[in-house]
Amino acid sequence: MNRRQFVQASLMTGGGLLLSFQASAATRPASDKGKGTARSATNGEIMMGDLLTIAPDGQVRYRFIKHEMGQGVSTAMAMIIAEELCADWEKVTIELPDTDMKRFQNDRNGGHDTGGSCTIIYQYDVLRKAGATARQMLISAAAVKWNVSPDDCYADHHQIINRKTKSAVGFGAIAGDAASVTPPAEVALKADSEFKLIGKSRSAKLIPDIVTGHATYGLDVNVPGMLYAVVARSPVFKGKLKSYDDSLALGVKGVRKIFRNTPIAGLQRETPYMPHDIREGIVVVADSFWAAQQARNKLEVVWDDGVNGSRSTQDFETLAQKHALNKTAPTAFVGDANAGANVAAVRRTLRASYVFPHQLHNCMEPLNCTAHVTGESCEVWVGSQAPNLIVTELQRVFNFKEANIVVHNHLSGGGFGRRYYPDMAIEAAFISREAGAPVKMIWTREDDHLYNLGHLFQHMEYQASLDSNDQLYAWYEKEIRTYTWGAKYADPQLPFMAYEIPNIRYDFEQMIDDELVHSSAWRGVVGHGRFYSECFVDEVAAALGKDPYAFRVELLKGGRDVNVGDMYPVSGSRVLRAMNLAVEKSGWGKVLDHGRGMGLAVCPYGNSYCAVVAEITIEDKKLQINRMTVAVDCGKVINPSGTVNQISGGIVWSLTALLYGGLPIVNGRAVYTNFHQNKLLRMRECPQIDVHFVETNDTRPWGVGEISSPMGVPAVLNAIYAATGKRFRRVPIDINQLEEISN
């Protein structure tokens, strides 16, 4: 019995819920089954470029080459291409094609990788042109059919229409003729005023298949002759395998083979970016996951923990604090890099330290990968944010030729940056090669908590220097980070803010070699620690006796653009617009009862802007987060409902880190083993989340996947101070300290 069968059987014992789902799926028309998800090409479908096919019945399949991990990006991208095609949205389905480096991993189609809130940004023009090109080819074919000029034809609602005679032909009927039309080098795109899909809310295309069980995730893959594998990994980062006794494990019925993964283990920094770690351990291969797991439990293993075996989180954070006191050369500055030490100008200095610890990714679907290595070829079934990296790493590690690598990329139950890394595919391929069979490697939930990569650690040091007029004269910010990409130094950058301060300095130090878990990208990447700056802005405002909102308005000086060393300058006017909208919608400045408070935070991410106002209550010595008001400037919004979901999900993510996050380690070993310790925000704890979009004339969409996830923390921390006068400078917050506050 597989996972899906178990869930179905469990549901049937509870009543008719499953039966209603099954009936719904079974009674759908044959043409609708599989609608919205990956399907094999059927006879008669016509390729209209690399990203579209049109069937004789008019069904349009969009070939989604990025990764869908629950964020809904496949729907937004299908909307873009369908908009320019003038397609009937109900006749558009989504296909997940295999990874094709030559066809898709290029500037023409934008590549397979999904991350950094860049997917829509980089694909917007690609998709519009692809849809418009197919539209023009259909128009040209219809014009030939009617012996008229293409200018006498137009597309609308899945048809090509003759302007003069009002004759119409459906996409399916003319697609065969259109396929022989030479694609035009240039096409006219729609004016924004003509949009009928973009900007309108649409439910995610894949939802019907997900809830009826038609959608395929990595864990659902079943290959003929497939075996199962689990790995007993070193409990300590960089630990080594000393010895093991597998005599009892080999006695478990169904066990096929037990061996070391040493040839591929270790921290891989040879990759051009996103280095990955495979912990050394023992692989158990069996006929079933159950047998493999039972055998792993019977292994007798002796580990060499190495230097990390005697270290704990407290040791690491103490070392980070020492780094914070180191005097380093500035990474970037404006004005005088040493202005804070100018005793002739500085009359008062404020300081604070903030910590954002390692975090777990908490993907609902644990890591898994199925691989089949035969001779010089490798086939992989996985849910990956970067299948292109899997291809390049399989080439590097095993010397496979690109032409001999096939990657079937499936949906995944959450990615959050963790599924950008190719380690699960490298390990599965190694296991398959050693086992001589297709093998599905599965991480258990406990594996995910105990041995996985973690989000990077950040320790932030702040110093604000005030002059004799109590004006902010100098801002100093130092970040100590376990760097995500294995680099030794950060690029020259300033804090991500547009505040007008005469002298600003940013310093950076990495702690790559000292970390207790390999750092990786997490939703929001470096923003979580760096946006603590909004807490320190509040600290300065409080020291000056000023309203936090009014103080920010003063510092923005009407809104200027500031080059902080990033791809985009920070726009003070956009910061102001987002902040003003959040303040307006939240009722900032209203009289609050004792024990209640509001907090504000505003920051950019890429070329998007997010402002958050948190409203909280301290009652009966407990924290209640009542409402989060969010204002977002992300340029053109493709799918408003999907974008609201993204922003809301980021806030929930942030509040989880605030209340329950962290990856505590004792004697080199992760402490949390499952969700009973590593808790997630529950429905009853979730506040009302109101999302508002800033009105903009921007004609382009910008990223939203990560912008809100770092913002809930500083907004709530500022609200707690407003309610109680107490500062928290790290997450997760210690609820016991709140209990000391008397109402």
Description:
With 743 residues, the chain is an alpha+beta fold. Among the domains are: 31-212, Aldehyde Oxidoreductase, domain 4; 583-739, Aldehyde Oxidoreductase, domain 4 (2-Layer Sandwich). Helices cover 29% and strands 23% of the residues. It contains 19 helices and 33 strands. The strands form 10 sheets. A 7-stranded mixed β-sheet has the order 10-13-8-20-17-18-19, with helices on both faces. Strand 5 and strand 6 form a beta hairpin. Helix 10 crosses helix 11. The longest helix is centred in the N-terminal third of the chain and has 28 residues, at 119-146. It is globular and about 85 Å long.
Largest sheet, in brief, is:
7 strands, mixed
Q: Can you give the mean pLDDT?
A: 92
CATH homologous superfamily designation of the domain at 31-212: Aldehyde oxidase/xanthine dehydrogenase, molybdopterin binding domain
Strand content: 15-25%
Strand order, biggest sheet? 10-13-8-20-17-18-19
Please give the count of helices: 19
Q: Name the CATH architecture of the domain at 31-212.
A: 2-Layer Sandwich
CATH topology of the domain at 31-212: Aldehyde Oxidoreductase, domain 4
Number of beta-strand segments: 33
What gross morphology would you assign?
Answer: globular
Distance linking N and C termini: 56 Å
Low-confidence stretches: 7-41
